[in-house]
Specification:
2 copies of one chain form a homodimer.
Chain A (H helix, E strand, L loop, with lengths): L7 H10 L3 E3 L6 E3 L1 H15 L8 E4 L3 E2 H6 L2 H4 L5 E5 L4 H12 L9 E7 L20 E10 L12 E11 L1 H20 L6 E5 L5 H13 L3 E9 L2 E10 L3 H6 L10 E8 H12 L8 H6 L3
Parallel strand pairs in A: 3-7
Antiparallel strand pairs in A: 1-2, 4-6, 5-6, 7-8, 8-12, 9-10, 10-11, 11-12
Chain lengths: 302, 302
């Protein structure tokens, strides 16, 4: 195991110099090379190979209904991270005003109004409105993957504003949800170690916003609702490459998901951070995937 | 060749009933099944197999810098289609106001302000700020793929608000750009026919907005700048599954791309509409890809 790690800037520089990533003018908005994408596809295959049920993944688009997003309470708890989509709903006169703004060097944003969609902060947010509200005894097993957005601009390559997650979700009783979280934490650690990553689990809390958020974060920790899977890749501390969350009945309540006895359903998810895992693999095994250890390449099904 | 086609609603219903697509509460925001995604991956492989240079695809995230988007002039020409990302930039007091709005049944959108990014309307928009501005004699060959957003809510499965494109882009002289457009139109037709689609090319124009837009659309048609690849899948008229555009020096001018002699570079692109092609394949060959003709499955590299 290594005892020293590069700075985030050095890691980013090495990946950009090798043509693996390409920056844009906005921190955390990054173009991915074909090599990076082949790694992401391999991680998806490796993650799918860990499944223990008959679910198959749904791919969600990078926008979701605003009404569903609001029901998740993310706008309350993490307002600083969310992205909301504004659109132009004007007529020819409004268009002339927009053009005048642009002619004057403006960016036109003031001429737009909130549309029907927001950007998901987490893939499973799009799921709870899509599953039938009558949850059977066996519960629901669901897989979902897609792009999410978090507004936290940073030059750290581990903190992208847009990135992909692959989530394994369970909706059912409290016991089913907790079993899902615990089982997937174990399987996720095994799966990530098979990729040559020196990972460890840790209790964690989400970055709830503001003063009100402190209570929510404390509850999450006290009740041990969230665990992250950590790996060391830079000198600024560990990077979470996966996480598992027991939501209690939060989403069940928000989306009216009911068990056969009428009680509100509970839920839990395990999410592989596909771009974070890709980053960890490049940081650990080098910028040229053709030189990675055979056992890693086998796990990625290359 | 078939002489009658389903309504868009019937086509959508068949795909939803077969579990291929899953609607949300917003028209055009659709969940994709694993079967759909395997088709999209196959189309990507088939498209990549048509390349005639040594470019490799960059994958762009579903957001791009606002400054770059504004430079493309899409906000002027297609304001009704764009998506702009708003974020929360407030303090604890602003958070309290946001919470009060949500408590009162509001959606909080009025408490957000424009952020640093927008949603691309076309994948190649993210490209022109990323390539070096000094264009060599040989020009640039680039490939790019990713999710784009167009605000045109519709229950027609051919008109999704979020969808993927795979574009082959040329930056260089006018002649290089026109050759690229013409060569790719020919190759694209051959490639799509190899998937069993009865496609035909047609001159086209983009849906420029408003009164000012009529002139731009007329120029695009008069100068034969844009061709679409059309296929019949519903009874409401042909569906474009690919298009090729010669941009003249529009992007070269906007992004300061210069040829060795100092002249502004021209550009052209050919874009495969990945989700539209997937839809056309399901509409043409049926909702179960395991039953598709062998030659189609071979082309998709299954």
């Amino acid at each position: 195991m290594r005892t020293s790690y590069p700075t985030p800037a050095a890691l980013r520089g090495a990946l950009v110099d090798a043509g693996v990533l390409r920056p844009t003018s906005v921190d955390g908005v990054v173009h991915r090379s074909a090599a990076w994408e082949q790694v992401v596809l391999g991680i998806e295959r490796h993650a799918a190979a860990q499944r223990v049920d008959d679910a198959r993944p749904w791919t969600f688009p990078p926008v979701m209904p605003r009404t569903d997003f609001v029901r998740t309470d993310y706008l309350r708890s993490f307002p600083d991270l969310v992205g909301s989509v504004a659109v132009f709903a004007g007529d020819d006169a409004a268009h002339r005003a927009l053009l005048a703004d642009l002619d004057a060097g403006g960016d036109g944003a003031g001429h737009l109004t909130p549309g029907e969609v927001m950007l998901p902060s987490s893939v499973c947010q799009s799921l709870y409105a899509a599953v039938p509200t009558d949850v059977p005894d066996a519960g629901w097993h669901e897989e979902c993957t897609g792009w999410v957005f978090r507004h936290e601009p940073s030059p750290d390559p581990a903190r992208m504003q847009a990135f992909r997650m692959y989530e394994f979700v369970r909706v059912g009783t409290a016991e089913q949800a907790v079993d899902h979280r615990d089982g997937w934490l174990d399987r996720g650690l095994v799966a990530l170690r098979a990729l040559g990553l020196t990972v460890r689990p840790d209790a964690a809390n989400d970055p709830f916003f503001g003063r009100a958020g402190r209570l929510l974060a404390a509850h999450q920790r006290d009740a041990a609702l969230k665990y992250e899977v950590l790996v060391d890749i830079t000198d600024t501390g560990p990077t979470a490459v996966a996480s598992t969350n027991y939501h209690e009945d939060h989403f069940g309540h928000a989306f009216g998901l009911r068990l056969p006895d009428g009680a509100t359903a509970h839920s839990a998810c395990f999410g592989f951070g596909l771009d974070r895992i890709a980053l960890a693999l490049f940081a650990t095994h080098g910028t040229d995937p053709t030189t990675w250890p055979d056992e890693v390449r086998d796990a990625l099904q290359w």
